[in-house]
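Take our chain:
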Amino acid sequence: MNLEDLQTFVEVADAGGISAAARHLGVSKSIVSRRLFRLEADLGIQLLARTTRGAALTEAGMTFRDHAARASAEIETARETILPSGDLRGRLRVAVPLSSGPIHFAPVLAEMARRHPRLQIDAAYGDRFVDLVAEGFDCAIRVGALRDSNLLAKRVGQIYGKLVASPDYIKAHGAPETPDELGAHQALLGAESWRFMDGNNVITVQPQGRFKSDNGLALAGAAAAGLGIAWLPDCVTYEYLASGALVPIMTRYPLPVGDVYIVRPPSAHQAQKVRVLSELMIESFERNPPFTDAMAKVVAARNLMPG
């Protein structure tokens, strides 16, 4: 029985189809199909029921999947054990948030590629929540509260943020001083609710506005254009803050710190490449000071400049 065929079958079973498995493996659908036919021929039994809509596991396939997954994981563990220390190979497919990814996370992925020249890294940037299993990702970097799921998560760092607006907006509409006053302002919406800290208490506000986007960069641009108030991480607004195009407001009520996670599909065996990425992320956050402290110094220095 061919190990590659066995691993391909597990990918198809977990991804829910041949197309998703092919994306994850980085091969064509015809190659995946060929491996499945070969495995079924070796076993002398049908593992997948193929229809015009795709493929579904047969009863035998569902039973065989767990055994195949355990065998594949054991062999992968054995392979990683005998490889030279730190030697990563194959392909790492990771989903990265677009808004904060280029600043915080792209340098970490570049460093990982530099340290492991035999590893292929495929980073997909976007602000939507991807289905890791169905879309063939090894892991994802996510910021903030995690949605309920069966994914496994490891916290690797923290990101800070501010409530911001342009000087023109403040001149025209004033600046809110408390969360209760936000109802009289135009909010630039990226989340259903905004949270603020009042000492140890969390205040939640349901903002209202006519401009909405799932991308932080778009919200920062709209805020700089004077369209309203935005609730954003520092990694998105730092250039606007440094130039004076945006200014922090309602600073007596800071935003809660956002946790950063590496999430991966449920599995007893964590791939070495995902573990190494998690370690590099932790190393990066520990090496760099909190973004908010750096930005506070930049803004303070700008405010002290004459004129």
Remarks:
- Residues 157 and 260 are 5 Å apart (CA to CA).
- The first strand starts at residue 48 and ends at 51.
